[in-house]
Amino acid sequence: FSECRDLAAGDGGHRKVVCVTSGGTTVPLEQRCVRYIDNFSSGHRGATSAEYFVKAGYAVVFLHRRGTIMPYTRSLPEDPLLECLELDGDSSIRGLIEFLSLITHTSPHLPQAVAGNLLLKLPFTTIFEYLQMLQIIAKAMKPLGPLAMFYLAAAVSDFYVPWQTMAEHKIQSASGPLDMRLVQVPKMLAILRKEWAPLAFCISFKLETDSKILLEKADMALRKYKMHMVIANELLTRKEEVTVVTVDGKIPVYRDKSQPDSDVEQPLTELIRNKHSTYIKNTNR
After folding, report:
1. Which of 14, 135, 154, 172 is the most buried (most CB within 10 A)?
2. Where is the DNA/pantothenate metabolism flavoprotein C-terminal domain (predicted)?
3. What is the pTM of this model?
């Protein structure tokens, strides 16, 4: 709670704060977990978006899956310590020339964001951790009213094994085929909007592999959970284009293909920031 409040204290208490969720949740199959069901997500969208929000002056609570892509390090190799450095003689270490410019470009921004109280990183792994952390963050941000935003880019599990029905120890394969009943994860979006942070600006994401049902399901989520926006993205084209679904219509957002290093998150977060600013003005009237 205190760390979230510290983020909000900047700019005389008028700082905008966004909770960016990123990465996929796991569903443990045993209480002493060995096996689990995982949701697909690299965390790229959340990490990239967090950078743009910080750049725009937002304080960011980055609720992320352990081991996924992080802000300001997404351009580095998967194992940067080993791939970017090499031994030079017996006791010296030097950076490889092909990575020096990349490190020089990205490395100053992370400590600046942390020192400026603009980035708080909070990890999760399981669906249980994610939902508990989201509730804590939302309640801490509730006093911010419309200055608070939730950018819910995490890939949250739809089904889980209730703790009381879960095996305590590792499931044994010698027992034969596994028959397990999963139940639906409680939908927290409605509770977030109604109870945890009712005045916050809320954006959720809808990912589908079938483009024919994508916009219909995004529109359904918008109305059912009273989101301010739902970002509809199709699996194969999610890095090139998304559709922002609102009560006023559908807005396509595209990556600028004329720029080789561009991404769709830059125009997407710009659109969202503008909509959030309008929401704040209208709410404070």
Report:
1. 154
2. 16-64, 136-239
3. 0.88
